[in-house]
Amino acid sequence: MSEPWIKLYRKFTEWEWYSDINCRVVFLHLLLTANWRPKKWKGIEIGVGELAIGREALAEAVGISVQQCRTALKKLVSSEAIEIESTKQFSKIKILNYKSYQNQPTTNQVESTENTDV
């Protein structure tokens, strides 16, 4: 099954961290890679709007240093955009108010994306 699309409103440009390139790229990456349906990963439940990732992998994925990634994540936590539950191996990141950022697709929308090559 293909993953559904995401919706990003133009008012995103008014977000408090939009001008901070590292915060913006980290948050956009989190939105694009967060689970759109619940999954289990290594015995851990990862819910909708959540993902499991290490800081090094996240930094590499968005093209910034690990320190820049840590700083961006700190800012996102302080402004209550995300929550982080850390372990020794990875961090479970939850995007707060995920549904307000994304339209949850209906069953028909999900089914229609299954037969679409994008």
Structural summary, described in words:
The protein has 118 residues and is of the alpha+beta class. It contains five helices and five strands, in the order αβββααββαα. It has a three-stranded antiparallel beta sheet. The radius of gyration is 15 Å and the shape is globular. 16% of the residues are buried. The C terminus is likely disordered.
What's the multimeric state? single chain
Q: Major sheet: order of its strands? A: 3-5-4
By DSSP, the count of extended strands is: 5
Order of H and E elements: HEEEHHEEHH
Number of helices: 5
Q: What share of the residues lie within helices?
A: 25-40%
End-to-end gap: 13 Å
| Rg (CA only) | 15 Å
Low-pLDDT stretches are 107-118
Shape: globular
Sketch the major β-sheet: 3 strands, antiparallel
The percentage of residues in β strands lies in 15-25%
Let me know the average pLDDT.
Answer: 85
The structure class reads alpha+beta
Write out key terms for the chains shown.
single chain, 118 residues, alpha+beta, three-stranded antiparallel sheet, two-stranded antiparallel ribbon, 5 helices, 5 strands, 39% helix, globular, disordered C terminus
